[in-house]
Each structure stands twice: as C-alpha cells, then as structure tokens.
Specification:
Layout: E1 8-11, H1 28-34, E2 41-45, H2 52-66, E3 71-76, H3 116-124, E4 130-134, H4 135-145, E5 153-157, H5 170-181, E6 185-190, H6 204-207, E7 211-214, H7 217-222, E8 229-237, H8 241-248, E9 255-258, H9 271-282, E10 284-288, E11 295-298, E12 304-309, H10 316-324, E13 338-341, E14 356-360, H11 366-373, E15 385-393, H12 399-423, E16 426-431, E17 456-459, E18 464-469, H13 478-486, H14 488-496, H15 499-507, H16 513-528, H17 534-563, H18 582-595, H19 600-604, H20 610-619, H21 622-634, H22 641-658, H23 669-686
C-alpha cells in the first residue's frame, strides 16, 4: 500500500443545530418536511441519521387524522429497517399524538397471516391504520389485489432509490400506476436520490408531480454537536487484503468491515476463512459471548474486542443480528467494537458509534457506497471524527485482471467525486452583471460585495454558496430551475458514472477538456432531460459542470494553502487548523481571484478528473498506474458517429458565435477537435451512418 491519502476530507462547525427540537419535538429536517405535509406527493431527500423515519411519523399522523387518509403503509427494502418505524411516544416531546404500530401489522417482525401479501389484504380490511412491510411484500400485495384497494391510503416508500423508471422495475411501475389513478398519497424518502446503474428513479412526468424537501449532508453534518471531521479515501493493495488490513484499520476505532463480494476478484471465495483471518490479524481468539454471540478477541495490548460476525450464516448469526438490534444497548458505546459483514449493515443500519466504515473491494453501485458511508456519519458523544476507507486490489499482469481493476478504480474515483459534491455546500450560480446586488445573508469576505469583480458569497446558516459567472445561461422553465436548484448532484452522478468520460479524463493526454464538459455532459443532459429546450439543457449542463469543477479547483487551492502552512488560525491563533467549513470556500474564493474573470468558457476548459488523478497517483504504485494507462490507451478508438454528431453541433454553434467554421489547423485544441468532429460527421453522413437523420 503506497500512501493513505484521503480523497476527501471535510471539517464541520459542530453548531449543534441538527439535534435541536422545536416545540413539537421536531428536528430541523423534520420541521421542514412537516411544513409540506399537505402535499399529495412528497419526496424527502435527506442524509442518514437526519430523522426521515420520524418525519414520516409526523406527516402520516397528520394525514390520518386531518387529511382523510384511512391507512398508512410504510414499505422498506429489507426487514431490519422496519425497526426504524417502531412505536414512538411523540407526545412526550410535544407532538399531539403518539406513533403506534400493532405488532401483527409490522410484517418486518411478524410472520403475517399466511402469506405476507394476504396480511396486507387483512390489514386493509381491519380497523387499524398503520402497517410496515418489506418492498417485496408490498409489490406482491399490489399484484394480488390490484391498485384500487389502496385508494385513500398513504404509501410511504423508504430508501426510494430502489425504485426505477425502468418498466422492468416492479415497484416503480406500480407506483406509476398508483399515481396515474391519482387516489393515493405518496411520501418517498431517500438519502441518495440516484441509482448505481444510472437509471432514472422516476420518469420526468412523475417526478414533476412531487414536491421536494431537501436537507443536505452539509446542513446535517454542520449541525452536529460532536462529529467534526469526515475523511473518505480509496487505497490500493497487493496480495491478500488481510495482510494490509491493519495498515488502515485501527482496532481502537468502532468499525464496520464489509468484506468483498464472493464474486469479486478481491474475494478468496472462502468468506468464513476471510473472517477468521481478520480475527487472527487483530489478536487471539477468546471464545464467543453466550448472550450476544459476539466473538471475543484479545489484542496484543491486552484489550478484549467484541466482534459481531454477520458473515457466517450458521445458526449463531441470528443471535448476533438480534443482539445488534437490542434497543437497550443503543447508547452503550462499549457494547460492540467491530462488525464484520458481507451484505448486511448497510442502508438503514443504525449504529451511532461507528467511526470507520471499511469496505474491501468496490461495491455494486455508487448508491451502495453512499449508504455505507452513511453508517459512519452518525453523531455521538466523544466521536469527533469518522472515515470511510475503500480497499481495492491493484491490477496484476493478466489483461482480464487489469480490465476488472480499471473498472473498480474508476468506480471508486466516481464515488469520491460524487461524495465531494454531496458533502459540499449548495451552489447558487448567477450570471455576472453590473446590476447584480448582494443577497442578504451571504458573506463575501473582508472586501465585501463588489459588482466589478467575480464574487463568491457564503451563507453559513443555509450552507449555500453564491457564485457569479460570466456567460452563464439562466434556466427559463420551472423544471430547469428546479433541476439547477435540486438535482445537480443527480446529474453529476450520471456524469461520473460515464466510463468513457472518466477513462479519458484520467488517462488520455490528448483529450481536450471540452470534449468532456461540453460533449459528454451535454449528451447526458439531452438523454436525461429530453423535454427541456436547447437553452435550458445548456443551462443545466453549465450549472452541473460549474459545480463539479469549482469544487475540484477550490479543493486543490485549499490543499496548496495547507501545504504552505498559510491557513487561517482558530481561537487565539495558536494552531493552524482551518476554521470549520472555510477551507473549501476560501479555496474557491482564492481561485476566482487568481483567474480574475470567472466565465463559463474557462470552467469548460478544466478537466473534471484532473484532481482525482493527483490523488490516484499518490495512492497507486507507479507501475500499476502505467499499466492502467496503457490498457486504456490500447482500446482508444476514433470518433464514434454519435461523438462526431455532438462535435458537429458544437461546430455549428461556434460558427454562429464567431462567423466562421472551426479550423482543422487551429492552434486551439478544442477548435481543432470540433473541426475534426464536423469532418467525421460529414463522412459518416455520406456513408449513411445516421439512418437518414
């Protein structure tokens, strides 16, 4: 392992606002969601530990008592998450009712009446009002009883990213039918409103019917009382991963270890032996706790570690799983030290003491990675820092292994880029104009707002950054405005999952950045939002690229400042740790000052993956890095017909702006590339490659 350099490191303010409650017992996110309780279709985008489950309880009770909704059905992806919707005495905290689920109607715990689908039918005919069930049970019930039996019901879908607009996604298709009938209320909840397979969660038509409540990671983590710092890193190893595990695993940290999928190249194909090997690396086995089933391991220092093994599917796993769900031990930090899992302990798993989420091998999707990171982002007394580590095997000499290693590497980079967006303050971009005025609540630094300069304002309370950019296209339609305000992370998730874009951005030395920022991103926008006109599509593209590239540039400037020990001090000036939340903001401000005139053309000329490569070069061995670059270069091909067409469209735009076509002999690399694309487009068209279009 070359170097443990985090790809992402974020520091927060510890303001304590996230856990403060109003007179109804609602935390900030819950209060924000409750204000929209009258909406028929409500989408709550909020990170792990922000209180989505309780927010749903408040909203559901109001719908049942005040909005003529007769039943509330809460559906979750797996049974273990059903405990999040257990009874809560909300009146003790100021609300006007308590949350109660009859035990027989929590189908995540109760065996049900015959088939669980039949239990849903029995519930609909009962006098009780609340049912909790797995997604699979709800899907089966809809297929068995039809959609009309759910009229006047609230359907609450937890972990909504499991839904897809793809017709083959049963739950997604059923929700579309329910919305078409328009006689149910739907509350959708998710901490990551994007899928690992780049499919849309909802069709644009259905998504437009939802009112969205967004509570960002920044707001959540910035408002914690204890957790101050979060690091995210991907590191490469050679040989068995267990040999390098202790280089990143600190036994004194509360840790969830996810061992690799048995189908991955990191796996030894013997999951039981892998767990045994980890235990052997940690110390001397002392036996099993008879009450909890936890493995007891004595470290070289003499400490006894309590390790929960969720990998072994023998009979004792049920005991371990039940012990981890013991609500009486939720606030006991010493109850368990390390959890080892394979497919469990991911979304919805609530262990507030987790300080380190350590994952071996890349997981199946970006969504899964984001969910695993969320296991470590709970706030807890004495927990000032948390981290996520992804251990990935370096490629070996065989071409097949190199190809698989490249895919894992690109996915890990995509995850880190996406998490930088998720964890950062929200952007509000404005076109630069001399008539602009400073928006109240935004701090523009010591010099204040000056309309003659490019300005970066920051509102610490809302976690918004306001940035003025020359040449920025303003969104016109309501949908384009919503996308630019709410969905930039989802757009960026699609972009960083574009394998061709990541490969070329990292390893193609002849790549012109505009091919990524304009052509590749432009293609994604057109496919994702075909209903938008050309101007709105361009506006969304510009906003997404600006968000991605400004974070990358600001991060690099902040790192350069840190390396030069030129950071602002805290308190009495005795240390050089950056003030909470200021490093990235200061980095972006300094970058905009250095470039003098921040315009969209300049932003388009930045390779979005340039800073990711610098991290990669610090974590992967030079030999492996060359091997990956060579493997990618070997499969580089000429322009495809679609790429040529996209470049030709850019060439036409160039002619409208400049009064001439781009030149094949131009010094400017982007102009030359557009000319090459236009020529290829003509050639392909003559060859009949565009089906007459």
């Amino acid at each position: 392992m070359k170097n443990n350099v985090p790809a992402v490191s974020v520091t927060y303010a510890q303001s304590g606002q996230s856990n403060k409650s109003n007179e109804l017992g609602m935390r900030p996110m819950q209060e924000r969601a409750y204000e929209r309780r009258g909406e028929q279709y409500l989408l709550i985008k909020s990170p792990p530990a922000s209180g989505k489950s309780r927010a749903l309880m408040f909203i559901a009770l109001d719908k049942l008592h005040n909005q003529r909704i007769r039943k509330a059905i809460i559906t979750v992806p797996e049974k273990s998450i059903g405990s999040s919707f257990a009874d809560e005495p909300l009146s003790e905290f100021g609300f006007w009712a308590d949350w109660h689920v009859e035990p027989k109607w929590n189908l995540c715990n109760h065996p049900g009446d015959g088939s669980k689908a039949n239990s849903v039918g029995a519930f609909l005919n009962s006098d009780d009002q609340v049912l909790v069930c797995p997604h699979a049970t709800f899907r089966n019930a809809v297929e068995k009883f039809g959609i009309d039996v759910f009229d006047d019901c609230l359907i609450a879908v937890d972990e909504f990213h499991h839904v897809s607009a793809n017709p083959e996604n049963r739950l997604g298709s059923q929700l579309a039918e329910l919305m078409s009938r328009d006689k149910v209320h739907i509350v959708a909840m998710t901490g990551s409103y994007f899928r690992g397979d780049a499919e849309a969660v909802l069709s644009p038509e259905d998504e437009a019917r939802f009112e969205t409540v967004t509570y960002t990671y920044y707001e959540q983590l910035n408002g914690y009382q204890y957790l101050k710092k979060l690091d995210i890193g991907y590191f490469f190893y050679t040989g068995p991963y267990s040999d390098d595990l202790l280089k990143v695993l600190d036994p004194d940290e509360k840790t969830i270890i996810h061992i690799p999928s048995v189908n991955s190249r990191e796996s030894t194909k013997d999951k039981i032996r892998e767990v045994e090997h980890i235990i052997e690396e940690l110390g001397e086995w002392q036996g099993v706790d008879p009450e909890t089933g936890f493995q007891l391991v004595k470290t070289p220092s003499g400490r006894i570690l309590k390790i929960a093994d969720l990998v072994d599917d023998a009979q004792h796993r049920d005991k371990v799983s039940a012990a981890l769900k013991d609500s009486s031990q939720k606030n006991n930090r010493d109850y368990v030290d390390i959890i080892i899992a394979l497919g469990m302990a991911k979304e919805g798993f609530d262990w507030i003491w987790c300080e380190h989420a350590l994952t071996v091998g890349y997981r199946s999707s970006l969504t899964e990675v984001v969910q695993i990171i969320g296991r470590a982002t709970r706030d807890a007394p004495g927990k000032s820092k948390a981290r996520f580590t992804n251990l990935i095997a370096e490629p070996d000499a065989s071409e097949e292994a190199v190809t698989e290693a490249i895919n894992d590497t690109l996915k890990a980079i995509a995850a880190s880029l996406l998490m930088e967006q998720v964890l950062a303050p929200r952007f509000e971009f404005r076109p630069k104009a001399p008539t602009n005025e400073a928006t109240d609540g935004f701090d523009y630094g010591d010099e204040g707002y000056d309309p003659s300069k490019t300005n970066v304002g920051f509102n610490e309370e809302t976690g918004q950054m306001q940035i003025e950019i020359n040449g920025l296209v303003t969104p016109k339609s309501e949908e384009a405005v919503r996308i630019c305000r709410e969905d930039l992370n989802e757009v960026i998730a699609s972009f960083v999952q574009d394998k061709t874009a990541v490969e070329r951005g990292l390893f193609d030395e002849e790549m012109v950045p505009e091919e990524l920022t304009q052509v590749r991103m432009g293609k994604i926008i057109k496919e994702r939002y075909p209903e938008l006109d050309d101007d709105d599509q361009e506006s969304v593209r510009q906003h997404a690229i600006a968000a991605l590239n400004l974070i990358q540039q600001g991060k690099q400037v902040a790192l350069d400042i840190a390396e030069n020990d030129d950071l602002p001090t805290t308190g009495d000036g005795s240390d050089t740790e950056p003030r909470p939340n200021t490093a990235l903001i200061q980095g972006i401000r300094k970058y905009t000052m250095d470039v003098r005139e921040l315009d969209i053309d300049l932003i388009d000329q930045i390779n979005p993956f340039g800073e990711a490569y610098s991290i990669l070069s610090k974590t992967m061995s030079e030999e492996s890095l060359k091997q990956v670059a060579a493997a990618i270069a070997a499969k580089t091909t000429r322009l495809s017909p679609d790429e040529a067409k996209d470049l030709a469209i850019r060439a036409v735009k160039f002619k409208k702006e400049r009064g001439r076509l781009p030149s094949i002999s131009a010094v400017d690399a982007w102009e030359k590339r557009m000319a090459e694309g236009a020529a290829a487009f003509v050639r392909y068209k003559d060859e009949g490659r565009y089906d007459g279009s």
